[in-house]
Amino acid sequence: MRLLHTSDWHLGKKLNNFDRIEEQRKVMREIVTIADEQNVDMVVVAGDLFDTYNPSSEAQQLLYQTLYELSNNGQRPVIAIAGNHDSPDRVESPEVLAQVSGIFMFGYPNSIPDNAYIQKKFQITKIDQGFMEIKIPGYLAPIRILHTPFTNQERLQAYLGVTEDEEQKALRNQLQNMWQKAADMYCDNAGVNILIAHQFVINNENDTDVKEPDDENAVNVGGTSAIFSYNIPKQIQYTALGHLHQCKKVGDKNIWYSGSPLEYSFAETNQDKFVLVSDIEPNKEPSVNKIPLESGRKLKRMTFNNILDATNWLKENQNCWVELTIVSDNYLSHSDKQMLYDASNKIVAIIPQVKTTSDTLSAGNLISSIRTDKTALFKSYFTKMKGGEPDQSLIDLFNEIISQQ
Ligand SMILES: [Mn+2]
């Protein structure tokens, strides 16, 4: 059985004020082409389908169109779950239309597909809360799928009931119990056993090299929401995760983050992007293949000591999104900025870095100015960021705003 695993599409996501829907259309098309060329039997999208709870209509249209194309006219099961960026109800709302195309959209950990809507191009043999077993044409073994959209402790307790035991209360223990119960009931080695989840999963309590994506809402606040690889039942042969934007295997079992299809923040600079295509057979070690995605633009963080070098580089690198740092003796002039913006229409930010002067603010006098005078603080901040003092009209404007608070 061949599975395509992708996640973190964040459809509708912008880079500062720059729209990326065209890039998203291209990379969605690339994923559909890979699914067809690789002849995959099933597709999993492991959460963060949209970037926000209220995505634009073009982002919604792109999601439905892509899932439909991936379903190959209802012959290829497609399973999409909600991430922490998605509204669980919104993810489930097209259920009636989705299921006749063989697409399953789950918003909650106890979601169950409604059998009434299923068109029988493939067979659903068992369903339960957070679980389904399917049979696809031409493949004998049943495919068991544990599907757990993003959940936090509150959501999980609402479905599973409150436990008094402190240790059992931890999210990872609750998830472990829930998964183990389903695995013991449905997953023997006569079938293919898969878990789909959108969580922060690390190898164990000592695994410190994993970071949540930049400008993502962190889900692992204070370390209490991390799931460990050993919380996943032994019966599970392949875990398809979403949340981290880098393609990554967790520990030495087949627990995988596919990563996002595009570089979404400057912290992802130089991360290659992939989908994972895996062959999974009952009672065997899966073979996992990373297939590169190439249609996205690169994000570059560049530093230059003068405007000329910067504009030359920009002219030669028209295809990347750029965060530019310009190191200089003074504050950047309007005409300097204009030259840079004329050289490229993909400058996301210009950071002027004025060479250190003797009156650089220290943390100590910053704190004392917060306590004394907001205007003085504003002046120092502006001077530090822009390399020159604000003029009187700006100070007046600032004072006006402050007086209205
Ligand atoms: Mn996420």
Can you describe this structure in just a few lines?
This protein has 405 residues and is α/β, with parallel strands linked by helices. The chain has 12 helices and 18 strands. Strands 5-6-7-8-11-13-12 form a 7-stranded mixed beta sheet, covered by helices on one side.
CATH architecture of the largest domain: 4-Layer Sandwich
Global outline? elongated
Side by side, the strands of the main sheet go 5-6-7-8-11-13-12
Distance between the termini: 62 Å
Task: Report helical residue fraction.
Answer: 25-40%
In this entry the ligands are: manganese (II) ion
Helix/strand-derived class?
Answer: alpha/beta
Total strands: the figure is 18
**Integer average pLDDT:** 89
- What is the beta-strand fraction? 15-25%
What is the count of helical runs? 12
Chart the SSEs and their pairings:
Blueprint: E1 2-6, H1 21-37, E2 42-45, H2 57-70, E3 78-81, H3 88-92, H4 95-99, E4 103-106, E5 123-128, E6 131-135, E7 143-148, H5 153-160, H6 166-169, H7 171-186, E8 192-198, E9 201-202, E10 227-228, E11 238-242, E12 248-249, E13 255-257, E14 273-279, E15 287-293, E16 299-304, H8 307-316, E17 321-328, H9 334-343, E18 347-354, H10 363-372, H11 374-386, H12 392-403
Parallel strand pairs: 1-2, 2-3, 3-4, 7-8, 8-11, 9-10, 11-13, 16-17, 17-18
Antiparallel strand pairs: 1-14, 5-6, 6-7, 12-13, 14-15
Helix pairs in contact: 1-2, 8-9, 10-11, 11-12
The structure holds manganese (II) ion.
